[in-house]
């Protein structure tokens, strides 16, 4: 029996992933949830907008598992907000805090419990990459201090919607940089951990756009129905969630030297991420500065 710890499994592609993990009959899943979890699932409370909740969740996971190790850590939850003006209880910009900082802390806290050969996935997005030419503004940098406190950034976007979009794309850049930093650690190399930055691609019908205007939400939900075939570049929740489950269960192994997976037209591919995502300087600085923000040693 494999032990898996997951965030973002209550709806959207994450719910598909969770169901696939349960259906395989070989996985015990501990799912972090803010409210009530799906029936029959172990669901310790987790609010990613509060770092004390992240610490409490990690402690409960350790208590529930006892001497057992974690075979897969699936960090899938995320938000996309209409601006970068909201702050968490810890005083950090919400999108950065939820999508990156909370998952970084959870990863660091659970690293000692990862089994040899464990799989770690962090959900990212092609929106981080200028070459993808999405409609969202691309990241300018990965400076953790400025991302946590954007009011300190002299180049901060003055348009709220543009600021919210950039906060999202930059948080997805941070997910890739964190995956690369983890894979480079001595622990990951010693224990053979498999690290994947997973991009499900545009997958309509999920709750990611719940903070957008009603007409946008309605259109997004509509494209999550069989009408999705009218826009072939969109992926199905079944494909996006299924690929993530296969990676977590070890059924899919990245090609040698690759850790960035992207679903394109329902197929899993392994493209290079953006130039900034491949910067070792940005990777090392983000890992170090994120540790300072959450009160951990480098």
Automatic annotation (TrEMBL):
Region: Disordered, residue numbers: 145-167
Compositionally biased intervals (Basic and acidic residues): 150-162
GO molecular function: oxidoreductase activity
Entry keyword set: Oxidoreductase
SUPFAM superfamilies per the UniProt record, alphabetical: NAD(P)-binding Rossmann-fold domains (SSF51735)
Stated family: Belongs to the short-chain dehydrogenases/reductases (SDR) family.
Name this protein carries in UniProt: SDR family NAD(P)-dependent oxidoreductase
Native organism: Dactylosporangium aurantiacum
């Amino acid at each position: 029996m494999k032990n898996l710890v997951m965030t973002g499994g209550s709806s959207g592609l994450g719910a598909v992933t969770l169901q696939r993990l349960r259906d395989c009959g070989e996985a015990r899943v501990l799912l972090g949830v803010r409210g009530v979890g799906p029936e029959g699932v172990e669901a310790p409370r987790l609010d990613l907008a509060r770092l004390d909740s992240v610490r409490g969740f990690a402690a409960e996971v350790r208590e529930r598992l006892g001497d057992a190790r974690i075979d897969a850590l699936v960090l899938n939850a995320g938000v996309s907000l209409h601006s970068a003006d909201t702050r968490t209880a810890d005083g950090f910009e919400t999108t950065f805090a939820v999508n990156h900082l909370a998952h970084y802390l959870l990863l660091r806290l659970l690293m000692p419990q990862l089994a040899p050969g464990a799989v770690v996935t962090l959900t990212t997005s092609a929106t981080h990459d200028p070459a993808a030419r999405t409609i969202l503004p691309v990241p300018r940098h990965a400076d953790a201090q400025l991302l946590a406190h954007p009011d300190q950034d002299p180049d901060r976007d003055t348009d709220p919607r543009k600021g919210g979009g950039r906060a999202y794309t930059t948080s997805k850049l941070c997910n890739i940089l964190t995956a690369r930093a983890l894979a480079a650690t001595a622990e990951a190399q010693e224990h053979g951990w498999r690290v994947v930055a997973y991009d499900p691609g545009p997958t309509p019908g999920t709750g990611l756009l719940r903070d957008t205007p009603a007409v946008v939400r309605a259109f997004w939900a509509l494209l999550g129905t069989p009408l999705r075939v009218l826009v072939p570049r969109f992926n199905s929740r079944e494909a996006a969630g299924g690929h993530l489950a296969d990676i977590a269960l070890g059924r899919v192994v990245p090609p040698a030297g690759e850790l960035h997976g992207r679903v394109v037209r329902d197929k899993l591919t392994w493209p290079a991420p953006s130039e900034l995502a491949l910067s070792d300087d940005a990777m090392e600085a983000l890992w170090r500065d994120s540790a300072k923000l959450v009160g951990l040693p480098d």
